[in-house]
Predict the structure of N-acetyl-gamma-glutamyl-phosphate reductase.
Amino acid sequence: MGAKIFIDGEAGTTGLQIRDRLAGRSDIEILSIPQDKRKDIDTRAELLNAADVAILCLPDDAARESVSLISNGTTRVIDASTAYRVDPNWVYGFAEMDKGQSQAIAEARRVSNPGCYPQGPIIMVRPLIEAGLLPPSFALTVNAISGYSGGGRQMIAEYEAAGDNASHFMPYGLTFNHKHVPEMTAYTKLTGAPLFVPSVGDYAQGMVTCVPLQLGMLGTVPTGEDVHAAIGGHLAGLTDSFVSLASYEALAKSPELDPQRYNNTNKMVLHVFANDAQAQVLLVAVYDNLGKGASGAAVQNLNLMLGVDVHTGLAD
Ligand SMILES: NC(=O)C1=CN([C@@H]2O[C@H](COP(=O)(O)OP(=O)(O)OC[C@H]3O[C@@H](n4cnc5c(N)ncnc54)[C@H](OP(=O)(O)O)[C@@H]3O)[C@@H](O)[C@H]2O)C=CC1
Ligand SMILES: CC(=O)N[C@@H](CCC(=O)OP(=O)(O)O)C(=O)O
């Protein structure tokens, strides 16, 4: 018998994607909930407690409720929501964030799957702060675009209904307290919140996160190559990483930054661009908000927790 997996919220955008990725795996038995019982608390409680691993693909409040329904002391949890991402009792499920993170995830009973937007900024900025190239107090900005599937079933329905009338590019979160800011701040190791401007585009899936760095005010100004080397050094220390770094692109003209480029994979590709004379660097991460940003990361975490090859079930 395979490990018993219950996906609470299996009919939603992230839940369906995880189901697809796990289909056909002989090491896993999916505990499925009848459609008419998917919000029934007793049926959910029964399946949550019967599972070896429960993957929660629910709004935050429902995810908290699911966790409270687990009474057996054995069911392990991967939560895709924002509910526990900066909770010290949970392990942050971004394996490439740190050398020891895969091991911490493999051993954890409670894993919070990372937010889609924060993953790019975290993996690009954290190594710079750790290397002393940026101070933790740096006034960071993050600009990003996501496909509309990032907004779940409701936003998908809205964009599909709008057709040609849908907005092509829409910045949002303009009070700058988007739900991803706490985890972005904590895991980049910044002391203050970055100014985060997300936007949604008129396409379904895929994202680009950009971190522009104005470095002129620093006492010691790192070059673009210094920045590239620090990020590359961090990635080189990882095993089983799905994140790669493109070659250094000073003053580049036409790189491959299409947000849809890595759709349906678990890949993330990082780029560093620079103009050293102006002390300016731009960090860019390209990945799939539904892949590495959500369901891919969840399956990566599940594989680590089950002790199977981390690439199993992932198109990388
Ligand atoms: N889409 C994305 O790119 C990403 C999403 N996430 C996170 O993953 C989680 C799921 O998001 P997503 O899949 O996009 O959202 P969806 O809205 O597509 O899916 C959520 C699912 O949960 C169901 N649901 C809601 N309340 C309950 C409940 N009380 N009991 C059982 N089921 C319930 C919904 O049913 P119904 O529709 O009938 O209400 C729906 O099927 C969220 O926390 C989201 O923030 C994380 C990273 C990226
Ligand atoms: C385009 C869009 O609306 N994106 C979502 C983020 C995706 C998401 O649901 O993120 P987490 O569950 O990982 O926090 C938003 O900004 O709320």
User: Anything to note?
Assistant: The chain has a mean pLDDT of 96.
